[in-house]
Amino acid sequence: MYLQKYLSTAPVLLTLWMTFTAGFIIEINRFFPDMLGLYF
């Protein structure tokens, strides 16, 4: 029960979300190398 409470805290969720987002961007950049250049 303590583990579930720990996993629902903001820093843990933020870390998981940032990891997911970074991985998602890396995967897009792998398949579409020029896509990021359009936005930045």
Automatic annotation (TrEMBL):
Signal peptide: none annotated. It is found in: Membrane; Plastid, Chloroplast thylakoid membrane. GO terms for biological process: photosynthesis. It comes from the Eukaryota. GO terms for cellular component: chloroplast thylakoid membrane; photosystem I. The chain crosses the membrane at residues 6-26. Its main location: membrane. It is a single-pass membrane protein. The keyword Endoplasmic reticulum does not apply. Keywords: Chloroplast, Membrane, Photosynthesis, Photosystem I, Plastid, Thylakoid, Transmembrane, Transmembrane helix. May help in the organization of the PsaE and PsaF subunits. Belongs to the PsaJ family. This is Photosystem I reaction center subunit IX.
